[in-house]
Amino acid sequence: MMMTEHPQVQSLRKRLRFRTMVGWLMTGLVALCALLTLTPLFAVLGFVLVRGISRFGLDLLTKLPPPPGLSGGGFGNALIGTVLVVLLGTVISVPFGMLTAVYLSEFSNADDRQKEIARWVRFGVNVLAGVPSIIAGVFAYGLLVVTGIFGYSAMAAGVALAVLMLPTVVRTADEALKLVPREVRWASVGLGASNYYTIFRVVLPAALPGIVTGVILAMARAMGDTAALIFTALFSTFWPRSLFEPIATLSVLVYNFATVPYRPQQELAWAASFFLLMLVLLASVASRLVIRRYVQR
Amino acid sequence: MTTATPVPAEMGRRSRSPRERLIDRLFVRLTLALAVATAVLLAFIGLVIAWQAVPALQRFGLGFLIHSAWNPVPGREDFGVLPMLYGTLVSSIIALLIAVPLGLGTAIFLSEDFIPPQPRMAISFLVELLAAIPSVVYGLWGIYVLIPALLPVGHWLHAHLGWLPLFGTEPVGPGMLPASLVLAIMVLPILTSIAKDSLEAVSPELRQASLGLGATRWWTIFRVLIPAAISGIIGGTMLGLGRALGETMAATMLIGNANQLNVSLLAPANTIASLLANQFPEARGIQVSALMYAALLLMLMTLLVNILAELIIQRLRAKYE
Question: How far apart are CA B187 and CA B168, in angstroms?
Answer without folding.
Answer: 27
